[in-house]
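queue> pop job 88
queue> type: inverse folding (structure -> sequence)
queue> payload:
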């Protein structure tokens, strides 16, 4: 079975789908009529109710934001350690 290609939807389209759902159109009808996945529609509804934004960064919890910041800092520190190791090798040769 061929893998379905990933589609992207505009913010306006997502708002329209959430609006239809909130005005009584069933989830199943929206999924079938517009060829959506139920999980995508559920995520849009949750995001619209929580923050009104469909951007992932606007819908992250404080713990998720902290984890991302710590991962970035960890990566930076690893790079610094690698640079210092290389500098120590170079200095040791002289």
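queue> result:
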């Amino acid at each position: 079975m061929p893998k379905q290609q990933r589609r992207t939807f505009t913010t306006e389209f997502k708002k329209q789908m959430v609006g239809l759902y909130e005005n009584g159109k069933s989830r199943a009808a929206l999924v079938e009529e517009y060829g959506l996945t139920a999980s995508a529609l559920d995520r849009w509804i949750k995001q619209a109710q929580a923050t009104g934004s469909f951007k992932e960064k606007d819908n992250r919890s404080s713990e998720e934001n902290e984890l991302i910041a710590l991962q970035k800092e960890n990566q930076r520190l690893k790079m610094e350690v690698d640079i210092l190791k290389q500098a120590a090798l170079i200095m040791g040769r002289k």
